[in-house]
Amino acid sequence: MSPMFEEIDSQPSALGDITLRRRRIPAFGDRDIYEVKLGDEFLMSSMFVDAEVALADLGLAAVAGSSLDVVVGGLGLGYTAAAALKHDRVGELLVVDALSTVIHWHQQEKVPLGKVLNEDDRCRYVHGNFFELALAQDGFDPAAPGRLFDAILLDIDHSPRALLNDANASFYTIASLTRMARQLRAQGVFAMWSNDPEDESFMALLRQVFGQVEASVVSFYNPFQNIESSNTVYVARKTGD
Question: Fold for domain 48-237?
């Protein structure tokens, strides 16, 4: 196979074939670019990770205290999880993903950040559907039912309207967000990545559930189009008891 392109792995899933690829584009420098595809749709590229890192940084910056218990929903290529672990205040990190294949890529270190996550004792993978666990009475941690968290960081759907799976739509409602918020401690934070500009209707939903809500634009250079692109990170903090 050409050193410029390699399909590392491809496995079937309930949503379609999930594929991990590595390639090089000489015009963009002598470095490996990792990509994840679901069917024909691109899910993530290591070319664009600024907002995934910002999701962890902005979300955790809004939380006070130390020995924080944190959930990351959506493993992807591991950038949000790795960014969270750079914060010394994180005590334990649960990374939830519905696709066992993606977890195995990291466990087997087929992706660059697998080694980083595997070597950090604070990090634990949870194979499960984030949206189901967010609403479940037992919560995110199968080893500690009912456990509360300081921060929940979500990066799964492209946006509250552009869904990876139509079944996820019911999560973006007042009822579901309220149930998820019960898994947060007082002053806890829910933060979410979006590929789209700020969605005022979603902001209104967050305001009804959380006391404090902000949306930050994360800009980055897109060499494919030679323009500046941007993503959005929502940060919502509980302000009640």
Answer: Rossmann fold (3.40.50)
